[in-house]
Design goal:
Strands 3-2-1-4-5-6 form a 6-stranded parallel β-sheet, with helices on both faces. It is built from 9 helices and 6 strands. It is 46% helix and 15% strand. α2 packs antiparallel against α9. The protein is globular and about 45 Å long. It is an alpha/beta fold and 194 residues long.
């Protein structure tokens, strides 16, 4: 099987449940690092004009609103976010599934909070539906390291490609000297400042 790299021309990004309350449950990765990575993904998606689908679950309850940074970076996607009423697997929410299909893309970049609930189930559903899925493992996390590890293993066994924020960004860029690549360099440098 030949691998066709993910690019601005063939990929879409799904950011699932990066909500203030839900993020506070994550213990497997430092909160600041996870938040920085999710924000970097959003900024890169904006630079490359990738189709982006945002979703949240039960915003009015313990899980709270999506990170405000996502609204600042991707105002249109934020306004159009799919507000799920408690469906765990986002792909079982017909509005979310329809939004994913509407991207017209078969290569999907997925990051969610938490990996062991918000990410694993839609990733498995998407692979079964014939999508090629890269899960950005460090733009999410889980309440425990073992929970995170089990979710990542389960996804990988099912055919999901696991990646990191920096690795995914470099794949999309391909060449740092292009106009977009130069913008992404600035995003990466800002994100990695101590």
């Amino acid at each position: 099987m030949t691998y066709e790299k993910f690019s601005a021309d063939n990929a879409a990004m799904l950011l699932i449940d990066h909500q203030v309350g839900t993020m506070s449950w994550v213990q497997s990765i430092p909160l600041d690092e996870m938040k920085r990575n999710a924000t970097m993904l959003a900024k890169v998606a904006k630079i490359y004009a990738l189709p982006v689908v945002l979703t949240s679950s039960m915003e009015e309850f313990a899980q709270g609103p999506l990170m405000s940074e996502l609204g600042e970076i991707l105002p249109d996607a934020f306004a159009a976010r799919i507000k799920r009423a408690g469906i765990v697997n986002a792909m079982e929410d017909e509005d979310f599934a329809a939004a994913v299909r509407a991207t017209g893309r078969k290569k999907l970049i997925l990051a969610g909070v938490t990996n062991d609930v918000c990410t694993v189930f839609p990733a498995l559903s998407l692979v079964r539906a014939g999508y090629e899925v890269q899960v950005v493992a460090d733009a999410g996390g889980s309440p425990s390291r073992i929970g995170d590890d089990m979710a990542l293993r389960r996804m990988e066994r099912a055919g999901v490609t696991l990646t990191s924020t920096n690795q995914l960004v470099a794949e999309l860029v391909g060449n740092w000297t292009t106009p977009e690549g130069s913008q992404v360099v600035q995003v990466v440098m800002e994100a990695l400042q101590p």
